[in-house]
Amino acid sequence: MPNSDYYIGGNDEHGVNPPTPGKRTPVVPGLNRTIYENEFNRAAKDKFLEACLRQGFSVYDVKPEEQDVSITQRVVRINRQNLTALVTFAYNAYGESFNNVSGVEVFYSPTNPKATQSQRLAQRIYERLLQGTPQNGRGVKPLDVGVLSSVNCVSALIEAGFMTNLAEARRMINPLFQTEVGEEACQGVCDFLGVDFVPRGNLENYPLLRRGADNNFVFLLQFILNQYGANLTVDGIFGANTEAAVRQFQTQNGLSVDGVVGPNTWGTLLTLMPYPTLRQGQRGAYVRLMQSLLESNLVPVGGIDGIFGANTEAAVRQFQSQNGLAVDGIVGPNTWNALTD
Predict the structure, then answer these.
(1) Each residue of 27-38: pLDDT tens digit?
(2) pLDDT tens digits for 52-104?
(3) Which of 36, 106, 226, 277 could be 122's S-S partner, Cβ–Cβ 3.0 to 4.6 Å?
(4) CA–CA separation, 117 and 115 (whole Å)
């Protein structure tokens, strides 16, 4: 069975800013704000769908909207698609203040019409999650909620941590952790389907793309470009609008502006290592990654915009001072290592 015949759905719980406790952290020290659950859920779902596209799967984004969509409405959407499998991303909470309850768990519904397969999918994802960031493993558990029990496909739900645990709350906005969870969920799906997993970090896995291309990697390219602010129709066709978005991305990131997506452009789109040395005045994807990592280390930058301005330099200096590094405001190997530790 070709991978393109597998139709995989990704779902993120809740909207961007629900007012109710249990869907946001307490006020995080250093940042002096709450982190909303969907800041993690949406990003992890996007990274999961990216990984699925890389495998050659067909994908369905259950909730592309930033605002909340009712479970009933999402179930209707899901059941119209005849998906092979669905993975939902969520983050747990215990109480309304920070405490020591922690860990990752994956759920399935015993009343799902494909309950046995759903349990097996949940188990495969759980095994992969435990191979990543060291976390307390809370197991694979039954749960009857609509996106598990009322859908007509194999379905699993990940609770990737507790937002009421400060260490795990910090991970919610760490782009490396978001990517890790999405990748591990896709690995679990591949294990469940019995197909080989194509890893993210090997640039040999990414074809050269130019105008006229029409394949799954164009879907992936368009999907990633939209996360950087493009407004492309994700149709898998490399047309004039996609070329213009590629050129704009290349310009913003100091790349050769040719509209062709080769190793340098792919590596920057994915913010793969080696990380470049960054200083005030630079901009682009790696600056945005660095800003996000500063915030996940509880050092606010005044807005994650991909621009290394005065506020970002001040944040870098603060982080360097707190971590016993040379305080020069330049993000070189030692600062990158501390940020990604």
Answers:
(1) 999 999 999 999
(2) 999 999 999 999 999 999 999 999 999 999 999 999 999 999 999 999 999 99
(3) 106
(4) 5
Tokens 């919610």, located at residue: 172
Residue pLDDT, tens place only, 173-195: 999 999 999 999 999 999 999 99
Note whether 66 and 85 are same-domain residues: yes
| CATH code, 85 | 3.40.630.40
**Nearest CA-CA partner of 237 in 261, 213, 259:** 213
Give per-residue pLDDT as tens, 281-291: 999 999 999 99
Is the link from the previous residue into 274 a cis peptide, with omega within 30 of 0?
A: yes
Contacts by residues 19-26 (CB-CB < 8 Å, ≥ 24 positions apart): 21/93, 21/96, 22/93, 22/96, 23/93, 24/163, 25/98, 25/163, 25/164, 25/169, 25/172, 26/96, 26/97, 26/98, 26/164
- Please give the Cα distance from 303 to 219 (Å, whole number): 29
Whole-number Å distance between alpha carbons of 193 and 197: 10
